[in-house]
Specification:
Carbamate kinase; 16 strands; 9 helices; four-stranded antiparallel sheet; 2 domains; single chain; globular; eight-stranded mixed sheet
């Protein structure tokens, strides 16, 4: 029986109504005769709320204690989802990162997964349980709880997929895929059907809040197909794999206020794109501070704020839309 791993972000598990939608999606996979391993983030803004409350107690909270505190958010999501699935008549069990055998480096707040001992997970799957695992966390050699940093649940999901030799890894959120630009800012942004690991790493390194960069590295290393999609609709998502469709532009990313990157395989040979960007910059009196070109990325640092309207112009000339 094939195993799949499905991960749900904080917006997907934010309240009981949304948990029901998550449960229905999990049940569909289970009824299709898959072994299902679920990775969950903390509900909504839980992590931010816990950080704020800790900082009200101390200007510099102890990092070990912060990891103990922050790990609670994912445990709430996992236990609530398991309670719901059991109520719906499906066998399930929630496991913390350490119960699931996720061993990490020593660092608090930014630990890295070093190895996974999946014995407990395998045993529960053999009993046809849906296994719900807290993302973002593990245990170090001291026996202390550690967390993986922002977006760490993505890394948990892909690392588990690699260890369990899962057929696929689904990453669900409130966005139904990866777009050529932020669709909230550029209405004509197009969703990508496929993107390579290398291109996705370039996007993540430039601040695109789609996937944790470490999860893409693991996916590439162990050849784990990652499918991003929305919890709330059935639209086709974006597949991240070794497949390189073409040398076209994949996405335009604005990082903070002054760095814009054009991502896509073959950027080092796209002189015409760079020329058009410089032309628009000159037309809008934007002063360029630095240009960095690699195989999958052209990054331009400007000395002033780049407005979203100008980003829209860049998107049009780069994607032809």
């Amino acid at each position: 029986m094939d195993t799949i791993v499905v991960k749900f972000g904080g917006s997907s598990v934010a309240d009981n109504e949304k948990l029901n939608k998550v449960a229905r999606r999990i049940i569909k996979f289970y009824d299709e005769n898959y072994n299902v391993v679920v990775v969950v983030s903390a509900q909504g803004k839980t992590t931010d709320k816990l950080i704020k409350e800790a900082e009200e107690l101390s200007l510099k909270p102890d990092q070990r204690e912060m990891d103990v505190l922050l790990s609670v958010g994912e445990q709430i999501s996992a236990s609530k989802l398991s309670i719901l699935l059991q109520c719906l008549g499906y066998k399930s069990i929630s496991l913390t990162g350490w119960q699931a055998g996720i061993h990490t480096s020593e660092e608090n707040q930014s630990a890295k997964i070093e190895y996974i001992v999946p014995d407990r997970i395998t045993k529960e799957l053999e009993n046809r349980n849906i296994v719900i695992i807290t993302g973002f966390q593990g245990i170090n050699s001291k026996g202390d709880i550690t967390t993986l940093g922002r977006g760490g649940s993505d890394t948990t999901a892909v690392a588990l997929s690699a260890k369990l030799k899962a057929k696929q890894c689904y990453i669900y959120s409130d966005v139904d895929g990866i777009y050529t630009a932020d669709p909230n800012k550029i209405p004509q942004a197009k969703k990508l059907k496929n993107i390579s690991y290398e291109e996705m790493q370039s996007l993540s390194s430039e601040g695109a809040k789609v996937l944790h960069d470490r999860c893409v590295e693991i996916g590439e290393k162990y050849d784990v197909p990652i499918i991003t999609g929305s919890t709330f609709n059935n639209n086709p998502g974006t597949v991240i794999s070794h497949k390189m469709e073409d040398t076209g532009i994949k996405s335009i990313v604005k990082k903070d206020v002054s760095r814009i990157s054009v991502v896509g395989y073959g950027m080092s040979s796209k002189d015409e794109i760079l020329g058009k960007i410089i032309e628009i910059a000159n037309q809008n009196n934007l002063e360029i501070f630095n240009i960095d070109i690699s195989r999958t990325k052209i990054s331009i640092v400007f000395k002033e704020i780049v407005k979203d309207e100008i980003l829209d112009e860049f998107h049009k000339i780069c994607t032809g839309s």
